[in-house]
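Please check what follows.
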Amino acid sequence: MGAEALEVVSRMREVGLNPSLSAIAILLRKGLITVGESLLHVMWKFQCDPDGITYNILINANCERGQADDALHWVHLMIARACKPSTVTFSTVINALCKEGNMVEARKIFYGIPDMGISPSTTIYNTMMDGYVKARDIGQANMIYEEMRNKGISPDGITFNILIAGHYKYGREEDGDRLLKDISVSGLLPDPSLYDIMVSGLCWAGRLDDAIEFLEDTLGKGLALSVVAFNSIIAACSRVGLEQKALKAYKFMITFGITPSSSTCSSLLMGLSKKGNLQEAREFLCKMIEKGFPIKKAVFTVLLDGYFRIADLDGAQNLWNEMVRRGICPDVVAFSAFINGLCKAGLVEEAYDIFLDMSMRGFVPNNFVYNSLIGGFCNRGKLSYALKLERDMRQKGLLPDIFTTNMIINGFCKQGRMKSAIDTFMDMYPTGLTPDIVTYNTLIGGYCKAFDMVGADEFLYKMYASGYELVSRGVVPDSVTYNTMMNGACVDILDRAMILMAKLLKLAFLPNTVTINVLLSQFCKQGKPEKALMWGQKLSEFSTCFDKITYKLLDRAYHNLQEDSETSSGTAENSLFLDFLMYITYDYLCRNKPCRDASQNPLKLIDFKGS
């Protein structure tokens, strides 16, 4: 690429032309970052010094592709070549680092800005506050705000929207209420901005009806509101599944002559997608494009995620192709959503092809992308591919997280490779990872699937032996742990199974719907469908929250009974043991659950055709 760039510049110089900002901008917009970077280097060699705007375009292009480290390299190079960075430069890089969750590096740059003779702007302060809020560190966000005020930098509507949303989402509601009151009496903002924030604050507080009433009253008095207020209500309606109210607010907004923003479109599409109204969402998107409203890549990503949520792979693929047709280059978020959707649909090979395409375009895959692929390969039993991707992560400077490790442990357990699973578990501590309850449950489940109940029992004992250490980290055996052990005990040697169940009962095991399903499944496996139906009838007397699996198991038991299938593999003692466990479950539900109305008997949902 460097040789090509050198040749281009040489020819331009021969005819008296210099490489221009617009030439580099065109290359970068086409995704040709490497060519653009080479051209910038060559320009410098020919003493055609690029200006700050040129550097900013390149820095922004790297940030959009998730290459914050490369962007920082260009900032340092820019300074070394005596080109002073601007507030735009620092704002772009800090925003990229905050989006990555790298608040440590963002903070270093933020506090280094004054050394360059630049005062951080309101935008940069807002970016830092937003980063801390998204990292759920409201304390640090408040400190940045206080520092901003002490330095005489004026907050704007965005500042307060960030803080109020943060208080209501991750902090204390009373702090959000207090901030709203302070803003209303401080005179810091003009009235229109104050009204917008009041609507936004009510939405984040969950007071949607009050927010709508306030908006209608404000407009009724002839007072101005901006797109921000309407976006807050539309987003709040979409979050709670009130897509019709969201559409009504949108139409109301158009009536008052307020132009929708990209956020308006994203929120409406999110609401429609959550309800599965993908056709309506697609039509709405097309109308927005036809009318010339601003549409960002994030809008397509929302719709793409919606298609995958309802398992409409053709719809997702068609939308992806439409993005390409419209000249919209997918960003890291869009690639991540597409790869994750394909992996969840079991199309991990296709997802890997998209991953390669993503890498070739200069995008840097993040942990989410790698975890999607690693999980997909583990589910397909292709553990060697998953391990190769984990090594690739490390080589690219990404650290596998707890999700990565849990998926690999699960992959080993599925293949019965318990030694490798335990080795991976032991390797977590030196790398700074702490096992969570999912890690322990996965390993216990692996032992049970390998019919090694001794190993499962020993591992559970180690959990309790760790005592306070695990509890202090929030790792406590849960219903998954108990149900996994119980399922394994049901197929173990009876004497050992009874001892194991006695331990579980001593540990205050509380049965739930999964427990019922485990026991009904065991009755069916041991050729006792009449027992499954009998207990199903008893349990239907209570609000036991039968799920789809329960109905399928009872349906299977009924058909097995009708066919008089002789698949009995259990002894009378095993059957008695299952009866004992089911009685404990029944007794617990009897004592803790209200009775169900006879007209709501869930057994009516079972397919009794052929009776």
